[in-house]
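F.,

This is the one I mentioned.
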């Protein structure tokens, strides 16, 4: 079967795909239809943070599937309630959540809640940041501070302004009487792996307090242990008023979560928001196990230590190839290596490597993005760095 031709014939051409057809995965490895084995250093875009086919997650999903796949949100769903309780206990201690299906939907919910909060005072403007990425619905696309994603979709949703990332003065200049919130990624992912400076987030929190603005953290890519803390805001020690999760929350099953502090948890009234599949019981069962597995001292320690080791090895590589590597950036196991030239060819060569292919990604054309599962080893890091060295030589 020619999957490449069939995909072109039947699927809208919105993805630039690599010519690989995976057959199955286990742990940190994937195998394609030809039997070639790959080390997965991308985790499906920070989704399978616990690797592929995690046995405890499989058990939880199987138990739930035998009970029921879906019931409407007009009924009480025990799996949702258990997951919501777990998330709040591990984050704000007091607050509420809304379940959706994706990161874009989680951010859409946060935007709607912020605007509902400000509606009585005529406040609706939301400040986001240049180089940000918040989703592909019309509202989250409008919040995204990258013009290349806007082309062809005008008119965008009004009420969004873009400040400069890590520049508090640029935020201050955009605040008006109509401003209701600021949304920011603690680590910009799609924008090229740019971590926020702690001082900047501290100043942002203070600025929002002063002007009575909601502070929203988009943790869709950088949350769920990726920084070395369960939630990225905990890594920085700065609490937002809301934060959003998706991607890795259920380790591969679709689920989005908007987490809201108690102070703002009654802004929505019944009927203000909804989602047919949001908080699907099977996804929730997976997420409960995922959170419990990720939130362990041993795994968090591995993320932090391996992240530092990986970044240092890439810095060493940069020193060997200063004419080819521009910069190394990252926090925890969210790492970017910026090149002076385009990086897609390197991505393909990594996949073709022997005896073990390597799955990585390139964003912003020149930034190699590494999002490995959390239980990689120094041996894995060394193999990836050595492969990159051979390719760059």
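My design for it:
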């Amino acid at each position: 079967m020619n999957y490449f031709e069939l995909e072109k014939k039947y699927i809208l051409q919105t993805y630039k795909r690599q010519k690989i057809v995976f057959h199955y995965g286990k742990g940190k490895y994937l195998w394609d239809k030809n039997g070639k084995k790959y080390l997965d250093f991308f985790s499906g875009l920070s989704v399978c943070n616990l690797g592929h086919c995690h046995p405890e997650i499989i058990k939880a999903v199987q138990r739930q599937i035998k009970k029921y796949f879906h019931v409407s949100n007009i009924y009480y769903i025990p799996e949702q309630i258990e997951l919501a309780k777990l998330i709040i206990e591990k984050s704000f201690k007091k607050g509420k959540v809304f379940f959706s299906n994706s990161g874009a939907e989680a951010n859409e919910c946060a935007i709607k809640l912020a605007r509902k909060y400000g509606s009585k005072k005529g406040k609706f403007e939301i400040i986001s940041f240049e180089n940000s990425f918040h989703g592909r619905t019309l509202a989250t696309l409008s919040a995204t501070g990258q013009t290349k994603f806007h082309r062809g979709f005008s008119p965008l949703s009004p009420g969004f302004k873009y400040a400069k990332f890590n520049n508090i003065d640029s935020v201050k200049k955009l605040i008006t009487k109509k401003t209701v919130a600021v949304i920011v990624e603690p680590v910009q992912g799609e924008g090229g792996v740019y971590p926020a400076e702690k001082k900047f987030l501290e100043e942002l929190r203070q600025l929002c307090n002063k002007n009575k603005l909601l502070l929203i953290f988009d943790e869709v890519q950088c949350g769920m242990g990726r920084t070395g803390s369960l939630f990225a805001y905990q890594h920085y020690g700065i609490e937002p008023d809301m934060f959003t999760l998706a991607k890795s929350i259920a380790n591969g099953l679709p689920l989005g979560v908007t987490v809201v502090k108690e102070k703002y948890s009654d802004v929505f009234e019944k009927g203000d928001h909804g989602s047919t599949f949001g908080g699907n019981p099977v996804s929730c069962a997976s997420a409960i196990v995922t959170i419990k597995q990720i939130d362990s001292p041993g795994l968090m320690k591995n993320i932090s230590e391996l992240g530092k080791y990986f970044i240092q090895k890439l810095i060493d590589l940069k020193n060997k190839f200063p004419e080819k590597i521009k910069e190394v950036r990252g926090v925890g196991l969210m790492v970017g290596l910026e090149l002076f030239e385009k990086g897609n060819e390197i991505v393909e060569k990594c996949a073709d490597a022997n005896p073990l292919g390597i799955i990585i990604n390139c964003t912003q054309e020149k930034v190699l993005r590494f999002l490995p599962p959390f239980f990689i080893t120094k041996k894995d890091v060394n193999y990836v760095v050595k492969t990159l060295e051979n390719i760059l030589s």
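The mean pLDDT is 97.

Talk soon.
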